[in-house]
Amino acid sequence: MARTPITDEQDFIEALAGLDDKSEGAIADVFAAWNLSSARSERAQEFARNVVRVLQAAVDLGNDPATALRNIKNYPIRSFENKTALDMVEEGRTDDVVAYLQSLSAGYVG
C-alpha cells in the first residue's frame, strides 16, 4: 500500500485523529507518511518534532505508544483549561505540556 504524503500540520493532525487501529504499526505509518525530510515547511517540521516530544513524554509515563497517542489526542488536561496535549502543541505550548507530563512522571512532591 502506497503512503500518501502528509505535507502540513493539518494533514498530520487529521492522520493522527483518523487512527482507528491503535497498533504501533499504525502510528509508525503516520510518521513514515509525514516524512520529515520532505515536509514542505520549517514550521511543519517543527510541529512534527513537537508532537514527537509530547508523545515521548507520554510514553515515559509508562504508556505504550498507542495508548500515549490516544491520550495526547483525546484526553483534556484540567491544568490547561481542558485542552488536550495536542491542542496545546497546536498553540505553541509544547514546553508546557512536556514539563507537565514530566512532573507527573516524578510523582507527587508535597
Summarize the structure.
With 110 residues, this protein is mostly helical.
Would you kindly provide a written description of the structure presented here, covering whatever features stand out?
This protein is 62% helix and 0% strand. It is mostly helical and 110 residues long. It has one domain. It is globular. The N and C termini lie far apart (52 Å).
Per the principal axes of the C-alpha atoms, what is the gross shape? globular
Order of helices and strands: HHHHHH
Question: What is the percent of helical residues?
Answer: 55-70%
State the major sheet. Answer: none
- Taking Cα atoms only, what radius of gyration do you get, to the nearest Å? 14 Å
Which parts are unreliable, with pLDDT below 50 for 5 consecutive residues or more? none
From the N-terminal CA to the C-terminal CA, the straight-line distance is 52 Å
SSE-based structural type: mainly alpha
- Count of spatially separate domains: 1
**Count of individual beta strands:** 0
Percent of residues in beta strands? Answer: under 5%
Features:
110 residues; mainly alpha
